[in-house]
Amino acid sequence: MSSPQRLTDRKRLAIVDAAIAEFRAHGFEATSMDKIAATAAVSKRTVYNHFPSKDQLFAEILARLWDNSAAQPALPYDAGAPLRGQLLALLRQKMAMLTDANFLDLARVAIAETIHSPERAQEMVAQVSEKGSGLTNWISAAQQDGRLKPGDPQFISHLLQGQLKTFAFWPQVTLGQPALDAAEQHNVIETAVDMFLAYYALS
Question: What is the domain-level CATH number for residue 127?
Fold first, then answer.
């Protein structure tokens, strides 16, 4: 009895993948549910059974984007370990997500449509904003342990992550530049961590 459910799941995944491809190629408004159905190789009725509207399909894309960004297990703060090693591990994890081709594809779709119609993404963005990131939690724990300067952990986290995104996310999403190679990723991560610790570390 599990086979029909697996087929249903496969069809839903095919529909979402088709929507991402069509939204990327033609934009939200110019993409029809008929075209999504054809690209997914399913009937239009099947598409509507899973997603009654394009808005719900877009919400699914944003949800998948968040799921991908939160999929990696958070690395907990370790009071007995050097800060630099912990931060390097955290930023390597973040860099792996930012350079993932599937993540970048989803981000392009979400950003393009959010710029075009901000109201479509407001609810999902609000949900994402309520979720604490692993890096924010790590910074808060290090502050409580007296090893980092006080300050808003979320602001500090965004400041640090922004250095990665400047090189490994925004140029790729908005300008189509190639992903950083391993040496470039290493340089960005090491420099960001050293700059961060030079200002925020207390011990």
Answer: 1.10.357.10
